[in-house]
Design goal:
The chain folds into 2 domains: 2-204 and 403-415, Rossmann fold (3-Layer(aba) Sandwich); 214-400, Glycogen Phosphorylase B (Rossmann fold, 3-Layer(aba) Sandwich). The chain is built from 18 helices and 14 strands. It has helices spanning 2-13, 15-28, 59-75, 88-98, 112-122, 136-144, 158-164, 168-177, 186-195, 214-227, 242-253, 270-279, 308-314, 333-337, 352-360, 370-381, 384-400, 404-412; strands at 51-55, 80-85, 103-106, 124-130, 149-154, 180-183, 201-202, 232-238, 259-264, 284-286, 299-301, 317-320, 342-344, 364-366. Helix 3 packs parallel to helix 4 (88-98), helix 10 (214-227) crosses helix 13 and helix 11 packs across helix 16.
Amino acid sequence: MLARIAYNALLWLVTPWVIWHLVSRARRQRGYRQHVAERFGRYALRPDRPVIWLHAVSVGETRAAAPLVERLLAAYPHHQVLVTHMTPTGRAASEQLFGDRVMRCYLPYDYPFAVARFLDHFRPALGLLMETEIWFNLIRACRGRRVPALLVNARMSKRSAGRYARFPGLTRRALQELTAIAAQAPADADRLKALGAPAPTVMGNLKFDLAPPEAMLGLGTMLRQRFGERPVLLAASTRPGEEALVLAAVAGAAVPGLLTVIVPRHPQRFQEVATLLQDRGLRFRRRSSDEPVTADTQVFLGDSMGEMFAYYAACDVAFIGGSLLPFGGQNLIEAAACGKPVLVGPHTFNFDEVTRLAVEGGAAQRVESGAALGDAIGRLLADPERRRAMGRAGLAFAASHRGATARVMEMVRPLLQP
């Protein structure tokens, strides 16, 4: 009880920072100016059927949830699916993937009054929380209203486990108040159990069930035609500071005619990366400009949303960002599913298990520094047979781990029976 009182007191103490954060983000990203009332539990849209609610924080979780959302829409046509987010980019990804087939809004901050308004307004029959969304007041409010709340595609890195361990009583109670937990991997289940989860089940990673959309593969073919016959390196989901390291690695690789495609992780950084390229005197084209990619173009800036499968389809080698610097890495499954050889840096703590399996299976190669990245780029682009072997290994790796969506649906089914 005292821990919860302290937690709620802390929420109120940081309220000025929460408001400042919203204002600060709104200056850089217009989406944060919209639907502000939803973040405090005020909503205009109203459901007219029973609601299945799925929470996906941002872009990665939303895309990972896509196979599950599609299965829920098909299996429960008399329900409405509500997808909640915390970021404008996640909301935009939901609009792109699902259109008006689902309702969408922001999940409120974890104030007791706000989560109570949310649950009383939508009255969900079931809640599915994606990955690492353990919100103490939200889960308590679901339990109090007898709303089954499941943590699905759950992952718990060592770093995240350490943060939750600072609040042992709150974390243990929240995990015990969840109806069920479907962990991605045994290591995730073990960390959740150590934090107090009574019986986490290993069900695999939903991201393996993502098939490259035909439209994106077609766009990838079009992009490749624009790029020409030259070698193409993709730096996918790069984070601050990594673009400079990638450019240095490319210069060190000295691959004749190489085109480097850079796709920053966050759209608010598109202009920042364009300025970096301009300041370095590099000849580059932006995806948004739709200008021809000429033979002397050195860099193609992928300043678009929702087209990552197309960029993977159009490249020869993919480097997964967030891993050269200690950001924890990003999902490499999409690249493997497109049959592309993958390079990752040393920092993959957010995706430890999947990265380890990909490296062990020959689908990915780990490099320890920017200089090592340049060496790996040069070697791979000079060895087409090795690229093909890694691509085949990636396809086999992705195919062998599918099935998590069906297992989660089996977990959901008895909870939605009349």
